[in-house]
Structures are given as structure tokens and as C-alpha cells.
Amino acid sequence: MDNLGWIGVASLIAAGLTIAVGCIAPALSQGKAVAQSVASIAQQPDEAGTISRTLFVGLAMIESLAIYCLVISIIIIFVNPFWSAVKGG
Amino acid sequence: MHEESLHITPDLTVYWQSGFFKLNATIVMTWVVMAILVIGSYLITRRLSTGTKVSGWQNLLETLVTGVRGQIQAVAEQDPAPYLPFVGTLFIFILFANIMAPIPIYESPTGSLSLTAGLALLVFLAVPYFGIRKRGFHYFGSYVKPAFFMAPLHVISEISRTISLAVRLFGNVMSETMVVGVLLSIVPFVVPMVMEVLGLLTGTIQAYIFATLTTVFIAAGTSGEH
């Protein structure tokens, strides 16, 4: 295979691995956060508003890690810099 | 259809171009959302009543403003009045930009990184603005806590949270649009509709999160705790 072919293969594998491996940790930690907050709401239903607001902000923070991975794999697939460099354009 | 549904950002749909200036879908759709919000608010607030008989639209706006005020009050633990215009505008704009997505020719402008980066830049500038207005020169004191060599780290954290604010909104809306686009080319019947409904939920939550995080950052800047 020529250079372009190798770059294509490497990019596809890297993009798939990025999103697959990169989602594991955020998924686990989001599950942990949701489980803990549901338990807290069950214990103290009066504080449900505060708990769920804090939960949303926390989930947003955790989720941004997964979204970084998504953005990286989209860059690799759609606007790959190495592909353009070898192809000469 | 395939070509149409699989571009990643509305920046690439160019309606009109003259030299360097492009009129792409992001700008046009932003104008559409702005026009709907401004004209709608004008029509509703033209005839406000203070009596017991209020129109349904006035009731809607009052509920919205009271709700945003209450949320700012709860998150920032400060008087919400100075922050209400900025945070409320961000919330309403992102909310409408997201939930208008099922309209056929409409493309969510929040699916473009340039728009979300612009909004995040506004937040980046608003934090020192509100901080200096509230606390004067003492605002810069929070940068050198607990020691003066921590200042670069504070600056880095401000920049990185701005980037993640922009990329979070962009990534959520764009991935949603893309999932619907991919599904349309595989199962074009009922399944994309379910994803659209899920997209309405995601869009609302993202608007809420953007506004809440803005409030958290501003509150951290005005109260002196990072």
C-alpha cells in the first residue's frame, strides 16, 4: 500500500479507537454521579432541586471529556491534516 | 439527500458570496432566530397589563423571566438583577436555536463552532466585566490566590473552560444533527423522528447547562472564590 492508503487505515482505526476508548471513563463516571444523586434525592427529597442542578453542571463537566474525543475523531475523519498534506492540497 | 445530510456544520452552506464576505447558513439562521425573538417579544410587551387579566403570551414571558431569575438567584446566591439580561438572553437564544431544529429548511446555528465560540467568548469577557463592576480592583486579587505564582494557572483554567463551553454546545448539537442525518439515509421512516424528539430534550438541557455554567463562572468572579 502507498502512503495515502496507510494514512487512511491509520486514521480510521484511530478515529474508532478514540471515540470507543474515550467514552469508557465518562460513561462510568456519569453513571456513578447519577446513581449517587438518585440515592441522595431518595434520602432527602426536599433538596431535589439543588441536587439535580449540581448534577447537571457536573454531568456537563464530565461529558465534555467525551465530546473532546468526538471532536478529535471528527477532525481525523473529515479534516485530516496528514491526508491533505500527502495528497498535496 | 446523502450529500445534503452529512455535512458537519452549517458554515458550509453558502447562500451568497462576494469576495471575502460569505453569507452562510449559520449567519442567516442566527438572524432568523434573532428576528423571531425580537419581533415576538416586541409584539408581546407592546400591550402589557398590570391588572388581574393578563394575556397568555404575557404569562409565558413572565414565567420565563421569573424562572431565569430564580435559577440565577439559586446558583449565584446573589441579587439576580445585574446578570438577568446577559444570562437570560443566552438561555433564550440557545433554547430557540436548538428547539427549532425539526423545522425542515432550518439548520441549528449552534451546530457551528464559530457561533458557539462567539458565545463562549462573550462569557469569557463577561466574567471580568461583572467582576470588576462588582468588586473594583479587588477582582484581580483572586488571580494571585493562594500565591502569586498561581496566576498563570488561573488564566489557563479560564481559557480552557471557555474552550470547553464552546466545544460542548457545538459537539452536542452537531452530533445530534449528524445522527439524524445518518439515520435518514439508513432507516428514513420513523426512527429519525424519535432521535429528533431526543434532540429537543438534549437541546433544552444544553441551553440550561450553558446558562447555568455562565452563572457559575460569573458568580465565582464576583464573589472572589474560584
Task: Tell me the number of helical segments of chain A per DSSP (H or I, 4 or more residues long).
Answer: 4
Radius of gyration of chain A: 20 Å
Number of domains of chain B: 1
Q: Tell me the radius of gyration of chain B.
A: 20 Å
Give me the count of strands of chain B.
2
The helix-strand sequence of chain B is HEEHHHHHH
Shape of chain A: rod-shaped
Tell the overall outline of chain B: globular
Question: What is the third-level CATH name, the topology of chain A?
Answer: F1FO ATP Synthase
Low-confidence stretches of chain A: none
Strand pairing plus helix content of chain B: what structural class?
Answer: mainly alpha
Structural class designation of chain A: mainly alpha
* Secondary structure tally: strands of chain A: 0
Architecture overview:
The complex is a heterodimer of chains A (89) and B (226). Chain A is mostly helical. Chain A has a single domain, classed as F1F0 ATP synthase subunit C (F1FO ATP Synthase, Up-down Bundle). Chain A is 88% helix and 0% strand. Chain A is built from four helices and no strands. The two termini of chain A are 20 Å apart. The model of chain A has no long low-confidence stretch (mean pLDDT 88). By secondary structure, chain B is mainly alpha-helical. In chain B, 68% of the residues lie in helices and 4% in strands. Chain B has helices spanning 2-5, 25-45, 56-76, 84-99, 113-135, 151-186, 191-223, and strands at 14-18, 21-24. Chain B is globular and about 60 Å long. The relative contact order of chain B is 0.15. Residues 1-5 of chain B have low confidence and may be disordered. The interface between A and B is medium-sized, with 14 and 18 residues.
In short:
The complex is a heterodimer of chains A (about 90) and B (about 230). Chain A is mainly α.
Please write out the topology.
The complex is a heterodimer of chains A (89) and B (226).
Chain A: H1 3-22, H2 24-43, H3 48-78, H4 81-87
Chain B: H1 2-5, E1 14-18, E2 21-24, H2 25-45, H3 56-76, H4 84-99, H5 113-135, H6 151-186, H7 191-223
Helix pairs in contact in B: 2-4, 3-7, 4-7, 5-6, 5-7, 6-7
